[in-house]
């Protein structure tokens, strides 16, 4: 995987005596999570033929967008930090078969950019809006349930980009520009619905062991991030066109790297935008 968005697989909480086998299971349970916390969950509002959507893409939240597309609305005004890969992909596929326009008000990151913006037949950025492209899922080469799940999503992504005529070099470039030299791994333990993150395998294992001994309801997942959560590739219109992206009606773009840095401040103090300069 090279995308910061999420693909999840769940492992059942084991009995204490099966802890080693379970930990091996959770070590394979990788999910990729966008950490741009611009909005809590999501909000949406329909005004006539326009849908305003803000927030994370999940299986639940995208039903609002998909229903709007099915009802043949006119435009979606969106701000999204991305989210679940399959959720974003489902909307992208719907958009390829509709005339609904996508308008980015402030930001469209990761799965929002990769699938929703690219998938729309008509799309535009409002002044000062940012498109943050991340690398798409790639084949894992791992013979496991998780590996096969990742490979399935990778195949769907490849087919999607081919169907809309977009060269994957755009995603490859974004990954090369935003990848981490050393992937970051965190462990998230959930105890009776309360979560806590751990940076090391040993501390996560100790916490899980203690939880199981107390016979509490426990679950744990490992998150591995291969791309930076603070560095985004904002391709120029020329780069988008060269990659085969069609239907862009408006695409205001910073005139210099210093202007792009100023735009980045609107997204957060530590966000870095990487653009195509000179244009």
Explain this structure:
With 279 residues, the protein is of the alpha/beta class. It has a domain at 16-20 and 32-167 and 229-274: 2-enoyl-CoA Hydratase, Chain A, domain 1 (Alpha-Beta Complex), CATH 3.90.226. Helix content is 34%, strand content 26%. Strands 2, 3, 4, 5, 6, 7 and 12 form a seven-stranded mixed sheet that branches. Helix 2 packs parallel to helix 3 and helix 3 (85-96) runs parallel beside helix 4. The longest helix has 19 residues, at 145-163. It is globular, with a radius of gyration of 20 Å. The two termini are 30 Å apart. Mean pLDDT is 80; it is low at 6-39.
Concise structural overview:
Residues 1-39 form the signal peptide. With 279 residues, the protein is an alpha/beta fold. 34% of the residues lie in helices and 26% in strands.
């Amino acid at each position: 995987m090279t995308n910061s968005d999420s693909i999840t697989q769940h492992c059942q909480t084991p009995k204490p005596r099966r802890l080693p086998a379970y930990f091996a299971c959770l070590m394979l349970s990788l999910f990729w999570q966008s950490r741009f916390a611009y909005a809590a969950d999501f909000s949406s509002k329909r005004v006539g033929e326009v849908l305003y959507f803000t927030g994370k893409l999940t299986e639940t939240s995208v039903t609002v967008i998909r229903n709007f597309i099915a009802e043949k609305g006119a435009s979606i005004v969106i701000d999204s930090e991305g989210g679940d890969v399959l959720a974003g992909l489902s909307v992208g596929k719907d958009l390829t078969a509709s005339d609904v326009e996508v308008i980015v008000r402030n930001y469209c990151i990761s799965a929002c950019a990769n699938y929703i913006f690219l998938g729309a037949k008509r799309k535009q950025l409002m002044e000062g809006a940012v498109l943050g492209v991340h690398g798409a899922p790639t084949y894992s080469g791992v013979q496991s349930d998780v590996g096969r799940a990742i490979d399935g999503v990778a195949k769907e992504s490849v087919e999607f980009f081919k169907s809309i005529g977009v060269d994957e070099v755009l995603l490859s470039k974004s990954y090369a520009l935003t990848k981490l030299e050393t992937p970051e791994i965190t462990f998230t333990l959930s105890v009776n619905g309360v979560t806590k993150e751990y940076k090391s395998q040993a501390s996560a294992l100790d916490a899980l062991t203690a939880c199981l001994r107390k016979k509490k309801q426990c679950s744990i997942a490992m998150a591995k991030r291969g791309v930076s959560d603070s560095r985004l590739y904002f391709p120029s219109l020329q780069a988008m066109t060269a990659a085969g992206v069609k239907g862009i009606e408006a695409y205001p773009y910073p005139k210099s790297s210093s202007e792009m840095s100023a735009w980045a401040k609107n997204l957060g103090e530590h966000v870095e935008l990487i653009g195509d300069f000179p244009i």
